[in-house]
Design brief:
Elements (H helix, E strand, L loop, with lengths): L3 H12 L6 E3 L7 E2 L10 E10 L11 H18 L3 E11 L5 H17 L4 E8 L4 E10 L13 E5 L4 H10 L7 H11 L5 H8 L4 E4 L4 H12 L2 E4 L1 H4 L2 H10 L3 H7 L6 E5 L7 E7 L4 E3 L3 E2 L13
Parallel strand pairs: 4-5, 9-12
Antiparallel strand pairs: 1-2, 3-6, 4-6, 7-10, 7-11, 8-10, 9-11, 12-13
Helix pairs in contact: 1-3, 2-3, 2-6, 4-5, 5-9
C-alpha cells in the first residue's frame, strides 16, 4: 500500500491542472483563489459542503468506485446550482478504511475528476486520512452575479422544475430488489442514481428570473416544503406534471408507485424554482398561493415525504 504522500502525488496526476482562477492548487497547505481572475459579473462567492458516507449514501455492491467519486462530487455541486452559481474549485477530504486500497482510491479520484471536468472545474486540494468507514466530504467554492435563496417566493408564482424527479429513487428500489439492471427501463433508473448530474446551467438560467430556488436532494415534496416554509407560502403540485415518462415506464414495468417516488425520492438533483413568468421550454409543476405547506390535488398535504438523515425514510 502506498504512503500518504505517494497517494497524494498519484491523485494530483489524476486531478490535473487547476482552473484559471486558482493560482495555487494541490501541493501546498491551502489553495489560493485569484479574485481578479473571476468573471466580472461574479458579485458573490458561494460555499457548500456535502458528505458521502458508506452505508448511509451508498453500498459497495451497488456501484463501482468511479461511480462513488462521481456521485460524491455531483451531490455537492448541485447546491451551487440551487444558488445559481458556477463552480470555481473543489476541495475533497477522504477517510479510508484499511480495506480500500490504492486502486480503489485512484478509481474514486478518476470519478471525481471526470465529474469536476464535466462542470468545467477541478479538484484543487483536500485531505487524506485513515478512518473506520469510507467517507468523502466535498467542498465547492462558486461564484454568481445574483444568488437565489429559498425565501423569495410570492403568492401567484409558478413552480418550475428542471430535470426528472423520482428516477434515482426507482433505481435504488431496483437495486434493493436485485432486479437485473441490464434491462433498458431498469438501466436508466439505476444510472440516474449512480451517475447524477448537477444542473449548473439550469440553475443559472432559472436563477436569472427565479424568486426562490433549491435543488432536489431529499425529495420533491420535502425540498418544496423548504421553499414554502422559508417564503411563507403554500405550494400546490400538479401530480400529472411531476411524473416523467421515464419514471412512468420503469414503474409500470416493475410495479412501483410513480407518484410516491416522484414526491419522496431524493438524489435526483433537479432544480426547483419559483418565478412570476416562465421561460420558453420550462416545465411548470405547480403554483404558490397564500397559506402554508405542500399539497397535491388540493387536499393531500405531503410536506413530510422525503429523506431526513435523523428521521429516516418513511
Amino acid at each position: 500500500m502506498a504512503s500518504e504522500f505517494e497517494r497524494i502525488s498519484s491523485l494530483n496526476a489524476i486531478f490535473g491542472a487547476p482552473p484559471a482562477a486558482v493560482s495555487l492548487g494541490i501541493g501546498d497547505d491551502a489553495a489560493i483563489i485569484d479574485l481578479g481572475a473571476l468573471e466580472p459579473h461574479a458579485g458573490h462567492l458561494v460555499w457548500t459542503i456535502d458528505a458521502c458516507v458508506e452505508g448511509v449514501h451508498f453500498r459497495r455492491e451497488w456501484l463501482g468506485w468511479e461511480d462513488v467519486g462521481w456521485r460524491s462530487l455531483m451531490a455537492a455541486a448541485s447546491d451551487l446550482a440551487a444558488m445559481a452559481a458556477t463552480p470555481i474549485g473543489v476541495l475533497c477530504a477522504v477517510a479510508l478504511p484499511d480495506d480500500v486500497g490504492d486502486e480503489a482510491l485512484e478509481a474514486i479520484a478518476r470519478g471525481q475528476a471526470a465529474a469536476a471536468a464535466s462542470l468545467s472545474t477541478a479538484i484543487v486540494g483536500g485531505n487524506l486520512s485513515r478512518g473506520s468507514e469510507l467517507s468523502i466530504s466535498t467542498t465547492l467554492l462558486g461564484a454568481c452575479g445574483r444568488a437565489v435563496p429559498r425565501t423569495g417566493a410570492q403568492p401567484g408564482d409558478l413552480l418550475i422544475l428542471a430535470g426528472p424527479v423520482g428516477l434515482a429513487a426507482a433505481g435504488v428500489r431496483l437495486l434493493q430488489q436485485a432486479v437485473h439492471h441490464d434491462e433498458p427501463d431498469a438501466s436508466a433508473a439505476v444510472q440516474a442514481w449512480r451517475r447524477p448530474i448537477a444542473r449548473i446551467a439550469d440553475g443559472v438560467r432559472l436563477g436569472a428570473i427565479a424568486t426562490a430556488q433549491i435543488d432536489i436532494s431529499d425529495g420533491l415534496a420535502q425540498d418544496a416544503s423548504h421553499i414554502a416554509s422559508a417564503s411563507r407560502v403554500r405550494i400546490d403540485l400538479d401530480a400529472d406534471a411531476i411524473v416523467g415518462s421515464e419514471l412512468r415506464a420503469v414503474c409500470d414495468r416493475f410495479g412501483l408507485d410513480a407518484l410516491q417516488l416522484a414526491l419522496s425520492g431524493g438524489e435526483d438533483y433537479a432544480v426547483l424554482a419559483t418565478a412570476a413568468s416562465v421561460p420558453e421550454g420550462a416545465m411548470v409543476i405547480g403554483r404558490c398561493s397564500a397559506g402554508e405547506g405542500v399539497w397535491v390535488g388540493g387536499a393531500t398535504r405531503v410536506d413530510q415525504l422525503g429523506h431526513d438523515h435523523f428521521r429516516g425514510k418513511p
